[in-house]
What does this fold into?
Amino acid sequence: MVSPFLFFPGERLALSELSAACLDGLLVPLGEGFMPADAVETAWMRARSLVPLLGARWAGVRLTAAWVHGGMPTEPMRHHLQRVAKTRTRAHHVTRAVFHDVRLPPADTVSLAGIHFSTPGRSLADLARSQDEQQRAVALAWASSDPRTRREAQAWLDRHPTFPHGRRGTALLASVTADGDREAYDEVTR
It folds into this structure.
């Protein structure tokens, strides 16, 4: 579908033309496409920019979902995708993406701009449980700035006590107080 605010290579313009428009300052890259430099970047725009990558069979999760939901300000270098389709499918040959073939339950998905993403609470819980320090740093910043999503993530972890590294996620979320104090988290991780 052609969007008036998003340009994908091959729809209306070739990649070379879109790149030239970026050099002229008319467009900026966003997801898998480009948007006008003076347009406001919204959650809908971020989600819609990932249509070529996600399609109908994959959902954006972890850092990708955090970016779309506003939990991190910049687009991740590598997008994380998780299967939402009932049947297994072959992953694309995309170097900018990490594919997780375990099916994401429908209760943990939300649709934005016709694309699937993990819910904000599930996304934050996944980042908080991660072993990757970059993901945990994003989780800490997001939990500090968004109390509602922090509560949703904690509730998700409480409902799923057998998920791997749940205690680590709970400790990270519990370490965030109203003023963003990290003392309790630092004590747990030493």
